[in-house]
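Here comes a specimen:
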Amino acid sequence: MTAGPDLPVVLAAVALPFAAVALVPTAYRLLGTRTGYLGAGVAAACFALLATQYGATGTVGLEWVPSLGIALRFRVDGWGLLFALLASGIGVLVFVYSAGYLHPGRTLVRYYGALLGFMGSILGVALAADLVALFLFWELTSVCSFVLIGYHDDDPDSRYAARMAMFVTVGGGLFLLVALLLLWQASGAVFSSPTLSLTAMIENADAMRAALREQGAFLPVLLLVAVGAGSKSAQVPLHFWLPNAMAAPTPVSAFLHSATMVKVGVYFLGRVRPLLASTEWTLLFATIGLVTMTVTAVLAVAATDVKELLAYSTASHLGLMVAAFGFTTAYGAAAGTFHLLNHAAFKAALFLVAGIIAHEAGTRRINDLGGLWRDLPVTAAITAITALGMAGIPFFNGFYSKELIFVAAYDAGQELGGLAWAFPVLATLASVFTVLYSLRFLAMFVGDKPAALGEVHRPPLSLLVPPAVLAVVAGTIGVAPEIAVGAVVEPAIAAVGGGPGDPHYVVPTEFSPAVAMTAVAIGGGAAAYPSYDRLHRTIGSGVAAAPSARANWWYDRALDAVDRAGAESVPRVQNGLLRTYVGWFVGAACGLALLGYAAAELSLPAIDLLGVSPTILLVLLVAVLAAATATTGPSHVTGVLLLSVLGFMLAIFYILASAPDLALTQLVVETLTLVIFLLVIEELPAYYSDVEESVAVRDVALSVGVGATVFVTVLLTTGRTESALAGYFTEQAIPEGGGHNVVNVILTDFRAFDTLGESAVIVIAAIAILTLVLTRDRGESP
């Protein structure tokens, strides 16, 4: 029998990084640059806590907002533990690396605080089983990455990259939020009431899919999830933020943009795969993933910077994982899960190697580097193991998961036929370019050393040990993949709905379509490598000649358009005139109210004018005539007196409607208002004769809109006789309050609401009077 997770342990693992953030300022004063070792200790503690949950499966949590069904739920299973252990395990190495890589400065406090917060957010995403908790942790990763990418806040490129990452990932998060809301709504047709438990939805996947299709929400959910996950995992056309994010320090790139944050989208696809798996799912995500895998692999060949090459290659491998989870076979689940582990090992190591190169050689330009194995022999060995794993060469870790994606792509093409045969073609073509850029990265360590490179020093152990550990992990998986598969991969595959099939994790000894695809990829890449420089120049010149083909170009144009629109609209909206501010505020409020009524499909109640007393109709007619005449009055005095007539007519209406208390209040307020206006009216500037015709038309339209909104609101609220609140007051509050009039009972027994309303009226009146007094000595143009 499978043991359940331990709630205190899981909570401690997620909360520990956030608690450690508060200790960073003090730790930095005591430890200086060695604060990284504190972060490493926190990450190691999280790893140890999570390791104790190995083999456990289940959901634990705490009530958060019970009235709304919101809880801090965590799901512990093979998939969540794999991702969480990767985040905390690589976190240990990144914190150690940071201690030797970064120079002392005040920004280190911000750096380590954000890095700890980021790790805690990733652990939260990995284990979250509640939609609200999942979204909150999801957005926290974007906030922390914004701080980390913008670490060099005095560098315009760093600020630009941080804003871009925030804009794309948070914008994509809004799409995900809508998808989660649609899932929540659909769950109401499956359960007794809508649930926020993602675990419950997955456990009832068939019923949830049926409910989504019945409500016409299945395809919208798929598209929204694709945008949300694609923005986080840098899928085409939202891939452009990832290369720009390389402005961040190298440890950040290794942690956020190869091992954890960019895999959040992939992780989420794996999590909801059992819930949404279908033919549409396969067509959508297999296409997105393989197109991303191909496009970004080609762009990696055009890269001139070491980290740029690794960034595009990261997007390419993320595309491989998205495509893998898009295939609903066991091979698809195995490829996505296994490659998540393999990619984290070799790509984090390669980013750390890139940091060593930049730190010791003083440059990251690929064409300026060569022959580094003589000065950096250990680093060269690390690079050989991890770069060949990235290329998918047999007996290296990346080979096994890439072989699985070949099988899944070929099977999908065979099953679906037609255009689906593009799946294995794209997977093979992308792998050819993967071999190309992997060999180019490795070539920096072989051949002759450029004369201009100068002396390259050996890195300190704090920089060398973390990538070496990752290389050992990658090498061990390459030699004995069954160790990793049995320990962590198979439990994760089961959690993402592996489906029928029996994936193999060995170097094949018999010919198959997948073996042919591997041979074409490796052979094609090796054969094309002598022409690498020509391909590099051709792709680079092609991209430069057609900037509109780059997503980055569209992003810049979109932001420029927003800036221009803002520059043009601000003088119109914020022109210093009270009339303008009131107009925009009231107009927007009325527009949103009417749109809300329309979206809720509310209908107006029937109005029976024949049943209204003729006396009341006469009073209301006089009020309407007074209001209409006030708008054309020749002076302020006339306007104020006519408005008072309107107010006194309303008081008479209340008397006729058997509401003497309201009538008394109306009379007192109207009398005081009239007296105050008459006292200050001589100090007011003349408005009416200076109003332009266009402004008058605008004011009339606004007034009609406000009147229509209030009119509709009153009808909708007073026409709902079935309201539970109204029933409470009429059936319970009046008898218990000992009165006969509901208004009197409310005023006496619910004084807090009445006082709040009165206070608001007083504040508004005071602001209005203050404004009139301050503007008494100057006129105001429209």
User: Anything to note?
Assistant: The chain has three domains: 9-181+242-260, 279-558, 577-774. The mean pLDDT is 88. Residues 9-181+242-260 form one domain. The longest helix spans residues 156-187.
